[in-house]
Amino acid sequence: MKAFFANFYRNLFLTNRLFAALGVVAVLFLLSFFLKWLGDIPLICFWVLVVVTLADIWLLYRLKKGVYCKRLAPERLSNGDDNEVNLFTENLYPFNIDLELIDEIPHQFQKRDVSFETKLSSRQQKMINYLIRPTKRGEYHFGMIRAYVKSPLGLISRRYNFEQTDILPVYPSFLQMRKYELMAISNRLNEIGIKKIRRLGNSMEFEQIRNYVAGDDLRTMNWKATARQGALMVNNYTDEKSQHVYCIIDKSRVMKMPFDGLSLLDYAINASLVLSSVALIKQDKAGLMTISDKKGATVAADRRPTQLNKILEVLYKEKTSYTETNMELLFSTVRKVMNQRSLVMFFTNFESLSALQRQLPYLKRIAKYHLLVIIFFENTGLKELSEQSATNVEGVYIKTIAEKFVYEKKLIVKELARHGIQSILTAPQNLTVNTINRYLELKAKQKI
User: Fold this and answer.
1) Among candidate residues 82, 89, 77, 67, the one with its CA nearest the CA of residue 142
2) Which residues cross the membrane (predicted)?
3) Could you identify which of 212, 241, 290, 426 might form a hypothetical disulfide with 434, taking C-beta atoms 3.0 to 4.6 angstroms apart as the criterion?
4) What letters, b where the CB count within 10 A reaches 16 and e where it falls short, cover 365-403?
5) Domains along the chain?
C-alpha cells in the first residue's frame, strides 16, 4: 500500500487549468468580503472543483495501464546522417486523451526538450517520428519514454514511465554508402555530382565479340570473326578488374579539426567507406590502412562479399590521437602489405608547406611503387575570412593572414605535382564526391 501511494504521488501532476480554476475560486472568496450578495457561491465553486478533480483522478487511475508506448529505432545509427526514430503509442482509455511524449535521447546530443504533443481518441494508435543526427561514432544510450496523459477534464496529468534503455552503435555513414551504391549500380552517379569521364583509348581486358553497331571504334574490328559470320563483328572490352584500391587514413592530431559537428577523421572514414563500396561494385579489390604514431588497423585488399562489412567494423572503432604521424612506419607497412601496384588514397591534412616537407621524402618513396593520391582539406573558415571585404586596419591584417594560409594550401598542391604525386584539395562536405571522381578518372585513364 505504501509503495502504491508513493508511486501515485510521484506520477501525479497538476495542470495549468487546475491552477487557473483555483485562482478563480480564490478571487471569488476575496470578493465575497466586499460583495455580500455572493454568499456561498465561492464555497460551492470550491467543492465543485474538488469533486471534479477527484473525478479526473479516478478517470486517469481507474486503469493500471491507460496508454502504451514503444520506441522503434534502427539496429544501428549512421554517423553524420539523419536517422529516423519512431515512437509508437496507443490509447487504452475509453475516452479521448491529450498526450505528451518525452523521449530521453542519448546525452551526446545535449537535448532535453525532445517532446511531442498529440491527441488520441479511444483505442487509437499513432506513430510519431523524429530525426537525430549523431556526429561521433560509438555507443549511444537511450533512456525511458515518459508519457503525460490528460483526460477531457484536463485538471491533472498522469505520468507513465516506459523502461526501454536501448543501446545503439553509431557506425560510419552506411546510409551515404548505400545511396552511392544504388547510384553506381544504376549508372546514375552523375546525379549527385560524379562526373562522367571520357575514356582515352581502350581497356586491355577483353569481354566478348559482338555485332558492329554504328559508332563503334573501327580499330576494335575483329576481321576473323567478321569473315566467319559474314557480318561485321567487333571486340568488346571492359574495365580492368581486380585492381587494388587502398584507403590510408591518418589518425594523428591534424585530423581532429571539427567541421559541421564532425571531425576531419569522420569525413575521411565516411569517404573511405563509400569509395570502398564503389570500388567493389566496379569489381576492384578494396583495402584499408590506418596510421598515427603507431600502426593501426590493416585490411588486405579483397573483393569478397564480406569485405565491406569487415572494413565497416574496423572503421567503427577508429579514433584520433594527439600525436604526429609516423611516416617511416607507414612506408614500411605499405611495402609489406601491398604486394602489387595499387591505387593509394591517403587521407591526411597539411596546414603549411613546412608540414608537407617533413613527410615528402616518404611520400615520394610510396609514389615510386604505387599510384599515390594525397587528399587533404581546405580550411573553410580561413577561406571565408579571405573572401570578406576589410573595413579597418584590423580587418586588413586578418584578411591578409587568411589569404596567406589559403595560398599556402595551393602551393602544397603544386609541390606535390612537382614530384609526380597527385592530390585533392577539397572542402570536407565535398570530400566523398571529389574522391570518387578521382578514382573513376584514374580508372578510365587506365593509370592504376
Assistant:
1) 77
2) 12-35, 41-61
3) 426
4) ebbeebbbbbbbbbbeebeebbeeeeeeeeeeebbeebe
5) 1-171 (2.60.40.10), 174-198+241-444 (3.40.50.410), 205-238 (no CATH)
* Residue showing cell 579539426: 257
List alpha helices for 293-378, DSSP H. 307-316, 327-337, 353-369
Residues, the chain: 448
* Cα(140)–Cα(106) distance, integer angstroms: 6
User: Residue 204: its pLDDT value, please?
Assistant: 55
Exposure string over 208-231, b if 16+ CB within 10 A, otherwise e: eeeeeeeeeeeeeebeebbeeeee
Give the list of residues 6+ apart from residue 83 with CB closer than 8 angstroms, or none.
Answer: 74, 77, 131, 132, 133, 134, 175
Residue range 169-226, pLDDT digits in tens: 998 888 777 777 655 545 555 555 555 544 444 555 556 778 888 777 777 788 888 8
